[in-house]
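Dear H.,

Thanks for agreeing to be a second pair of eyes. The structure we're designing against is below in token form, covering all 183 positions.
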């Protein structure tokens, strides 16, 4: 009887010391994942008269593409969509594929709607096509907060290519997501 009494007292003390919110706070899971998207680039020469070619080529080399990254599209997070407590974005990797020798993207800027420019990369070629730029932690924290609050971000890449080309800019953002285990 004394043993049962002690267990009841211990359970009562634990229950009063740790409220449901505190227990929920302690019951979290850390998930390593990536938020990824592809930006297809297609800059093609259109049919034009010879006098129009110079003006046409100048217009064709610029590109702007926007894509949405949504939490719900991340397979690793699917079971925890309504339980996400925190998102911590750690690093960014940009890889450009599809360029052939002689094709160059002079500059690519990546921005997030509501935050602004995050990074700019220069002189991308078929041999120099993968980048892990240093992004200030304050910017990554702003993007993390926006992704957590809005459940999505809109990412835009803008660039200037030296000639018509077709390729893909792949964006991968490493992240640690903390989710509640309990409801």
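And this is the sequence the design step returned. I haven't edited it by hand at all.
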């Amino acid at each position: 009887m004394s043993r049962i009494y002690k267990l009841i007292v211990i359970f009562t003390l634990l229950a009063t010391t740790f409220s449901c919110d505190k227990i929920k706070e302690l019951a979290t899971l850390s998930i390593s994942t990536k938020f990824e998207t592809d930006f297809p680039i297609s800059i093609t020469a259109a049919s034009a008269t010879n006098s129009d070619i110079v003006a046409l080529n100048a217009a064709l080399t610029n590109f702007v593409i926007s894509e949405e990254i949504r939490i719900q599209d991340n397979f690793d997070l699917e079971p925890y969509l309504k339980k996400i407590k925190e998102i911590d974005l750690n690093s960014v990797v940009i890889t450009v594929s599809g360029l052939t020798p002689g094709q160059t993207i002079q500059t690519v800027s990546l921005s997030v709607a509501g935050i602004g420019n995050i990074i700019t990369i220069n002189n991308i070629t078929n041999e120099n096509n993968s980048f892990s730029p240093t992004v200030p932690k304050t910017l990554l924290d702003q993007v993390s907060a926006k992704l957590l609050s809005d459940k999505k971000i809109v990412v835009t890449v803008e660039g200037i290519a030296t000639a018509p080309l077709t390729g893909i800019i792949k964006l991968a953002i490493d992240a640690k997501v903390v989710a509640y285990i309990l409801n």
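Two observations from my side: Confidence is low (pLDDT under 50) at residues 47-56. Residues 61 and 161 are 5 Å apart (CA to CA).

Warmly,
E.
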